[in-house]
Amino acid sequence: MRYELYYWTGIQGRGEFVRLALEDAGAEYIDVAREKGDEAIMPFLRGQQPGAQPFAPPFLRAGRQVIAQTANILGFLAPRHGLVPASAASQTYALQLQLTITDIVAEAHDTHHPVAVEKYYEDQRPEARKRSASFREERIPKFLGYFEQILENNDGRHALGRRNSYVDLSLFQLMAGLEYAFPRTMKRLQRRTTRLRALRERVAERPRIAAYLASPRRLAFNEDGIFRHYPELDEA
Amino acid sequence: MRYELYYWTGIQGRGEFVRLALEDAGAEYIDVAREKGDEAIMPFLRGQQPGAQPFAPPFLRAGRQVIAQTANILGFLAPRHGLVPASAASQTYALQLQLTITDIVAEAHDTHHPVAVEKYYEDQRPEARKRSASFREERIPKFLGYFEQILENNDGRHALGRRNSYVDLSLFQLMAGLEYAFPRTMKRLQRRTTRLRALRERVAERPRIAAYLASPRRLAFNEDGIFRHYPELDEA
């Protein structure tokens, strides 16, 4: 099966969580918009293609099936590629964890877009400062504290089971994104995120992930994506 | 199987999407916090109970399994109670739609909490006005336009398949919540939401749903929940 991934060009964004799973699995896939441009995405959003109509990218074409919503794509791919334990209960639990990652990712986005997703950051800077203060002081510690506890109550190294899963890959991406966007905050939280930081290092060293990160397929973080480094939004 | 639902007392909130599925299925369940108080929730959040540790309510206890994240709970319950078609592809599609409902529900919440979830609405009123304007003018039409198209491209009456599913129940709740919170906006959009409004009426007339809505188990919308009616946040 050669998958087709559809996601906006130029940013890691939510598509990156899917890319990491495809790359770690060694799956064959085309990153369609990078080859054909963002316009390749539009017919799907307009309902002009067979298969499920997505509200937004990322979406994945797998044969005749079109699948949207990041966590849902991962829940679909994972059992096909050994990225989640086989039991139904484990897959339900993995999705619960992934959806909690979805929640903090959405909140990370809203730090630079607190009042209007369709406007520029520059049009909502005072509100972004307020939202970011809450995110740094309340939300990051709460979410990362939760995931630290999840790791600790498992084997200390994996979100679930005894092997790498798509949730571990997504935690890697979450940590990488937060460290890019809020380096001073994340430095302050170092001692409270030891397991997550160690997980991040281990995932980065997985052979296929290491090869991916060193390849041109891995875009750099930038200020068009979800995790943006605006120094004025980080702590002083 | 007698389920245990855990959700904050006093509000419909995200728990209501689960309640509607349990009620429509005629499933046996206890709404635990309503019987024992919100403190019954806390040991789960602290990881002091067996089963998956939730980040937040709602969560469901089903035998020894604990399941959190609204869409995930619904994806678990639905095939057990005929609330989704049997095929794996249908269940993936249903979850995609439900996660898109999750997205607009989160945005509805952020209209009254645009800068800090842990502060009161009264502490973020100017920002709430801005966020609400964007939500009313850009986001509600975009999301509801999408779901109208989903209905139209199916049979006009159901989100997927030819029968009621958990997604239909959630669309009912979404419409009810938006009409409570933004009555003037929703009136303006009446002609663009004919299928969603008809679906809402049909769901409300389903015997078990009608009985539920008339019972004391259905709380009224209020200004502690997700869908809040602040007239200053609706259009003029």
- Which residues of chain A form runs of ≥5 with pLDDT under 50? none
Oligomer: homodimer
Quickly name the level 1 CATH class of the domain at 88-206 in chain A.
Mainly Alpha
Helical percentage of chain A? 40-55%
Output the strand order for the largest sheet of chain A.
Answer: 2-1-3-4
SSE ordering of chain A: EHEHHEEHHHHHHH
**Which structural class should the secondary elements of chain A be placed in?**
alpha+beta
Task: Average the pLDDT over all residues of chain A and give the rounded result.
Answer: 97
The major pleated sheet of chain A works out as: 4 strands, mixed
Number of helices of chain A: 10
CATH topology category name of the domain at 88-206 in chain A: Glutathione S-transferase Yfyf (Class Pi), Chain A, domain 2
Percentage of β-strand residues of chain A = 5-15%
- From the spread of the alpha carbons, the general shape of chain A counts as globular
Q: Tally of extended strands of chain A?
A: 4
Based on CA atoms alone, the radius of gyration of chain A comes out at: 18 Å
GO molecular function (chains A, B): glutathione transferase activity
GO biological process, one term (chains A, B): glutathione metabolic process
Organism (chains A, B): Dyella jiangningensis
Protein name (chains A, B): Glutathione S-transferase
